[in-house]
Amino acid sequence: MTESSKEWPLYEIFIRAKSGLDHKHVGSLHATDASMALEHARDLYTRRQEGVSIWAVRSTDIVASDPADADAFFEPARDKVYRHPTFYDIPDEVKTL
Amino acid sequence: MTPHCRYVLRLADTNLVLAQRLGEWVGHAPALEEDLGIANVSLDLLGQARLLLAHAGELEGRGRDEDALAYLREESEYLNLTLVEQPNGDFGDTIARQFLFDAWQLELNGKLAQSKDEKLAAIAVKGIRETAYHLRYSGGWLIRLGDGTDESHRRVEESLARLWPFTNELFDGDEVDQSIAKAGIGPAPETLRAGWLRHVDEVLAEATLARPAPAQFGWYGKQGRHGEHLGYLLAEMQSLHRAHPGATW
User: Nearest CB to A43: which of B36, B140, B144?
Assistant: First the structure.
């Protein structure tokens, strides 16, 4: 590890609220290692029974898109309305689509 | 006061005093995350203390509730183990104290779960999961500090050596302990030692720390004979209730 900063590494925390649901990002915290990150997440984010499972990921391990690339990344999807499934006729009998 | 009531009061006071000690860290822990972690442990212990105090009050049968027992008794009436009244010191001191205590409490609650006192058994069962987590927390930190830097190793080694003599009392039975063991209410203290030591040795090995040498002297907070620290703790804890009797949020 090359970090010389005294600050503990940052972890992103994801909580699964109940079985069957996805893990959702809830926030971040500092911890010296992975097991401490889990314990801190338990103490910070599940004290009111918010979850049944925790994922912790080192923030530096997350690959993020650059806001400067937003035009190239997201703009081209803007005028492609045909990608939305809004051109189908839905039979009246189908209730739950 | 019957030995039964006195025994429950010892357990209650031990939890209460340690909860108060840990509460002193709130706002002062090395990191915000630790602030919450320690506060959670403190509140768990306070919860156990409240149940035990209420139970002791019923056993006593003189109409004293948990507040009367917590706020209106003098230092010499407090029956907590001397270990838990020791000052917080640095973070390593607090962790060492907590680890020695957690490993003991887990053994104890395991045995109390079979108590003939059904209420005490129920409180112990509820406590086991909490204590298992506390031990994971304190043990994890002991390993990090012991197996950390030269300075953290040296300092936590000193913490352990300083606190170790207070563990004698945990396993030293007196006539109250004998009486409740005979009645099947609680374990004889010495029967907890082997399991405690096994767990302590395991974590110390991982923490690259040596077990301190046995100390010959003992302390007897559980008989109401306290060191110089408890009085200050009680003064702070009881001052509000004594100034405003019956005050609530």
Answer: B36
Q: Which residues of B touch A33 (CB under 8 A)?
A: 144
Q: pTM for the full model?
A: 0.88
| Residue B129 token pair | 């999961």
pLDDT-derived band at A2 (thresholds 50, 70, 90) equals: very low
Kind and range of the H or E element at A74? helix A70-74
Provide the token pair at A71.
């035009």
CATH number at B201 reads 1.20.1260.10
Average pLDDT over residues B21-48: 95
Q: CA-to-CA distance for B45 and B40, rounded, in angstroms?
A: 9
* A46-88 per-position pLDDT tens digit: 988 899 999 999 999 999 999 998 888 888 888 888 788 777 7
| Per-residue pLDDT tens digits for B157-170 | 999 999 999 999 99
Q: Quick check: is B248 in a domain?
A: no
Tokens of B58: 């019923």
Residue B249 lies in a domain: no
Q: Is the domain A10-64 a CATH 3.10.20.520 member?
A: yes
Q: What total number of domains does chain B contain?
A: 1
Query: How many C-beta atoms lie closer than 10 Å to residue B145's C-beta?
Result: 23
Tokens 């806001």 correspond to A67
Q: CA–CA separation, B96 vs B101, rounded Å?
A: 9
Pick from B32, B40, B144: CB nearest A47 = B40
- Angle (CA) B21 B152 B233, round 5°: 15
Domain spans of chain A? 10-64
Which ipTM did the prediction report? 0.74
Which segments of chain B does DSSP mark as H helices, in order? 3-23, 32-60, 66-71, 82-85, 91-112, 118-146, 150-163, 175-182, 193-206, 230-243
User: Can you tell me the mean pLDDT for B43-59?
Assistant: 97
* Cβ B146 vs Cβ B209: under 8 Å: yes
| Shortest CA gap A44–chain B (Å) | 7
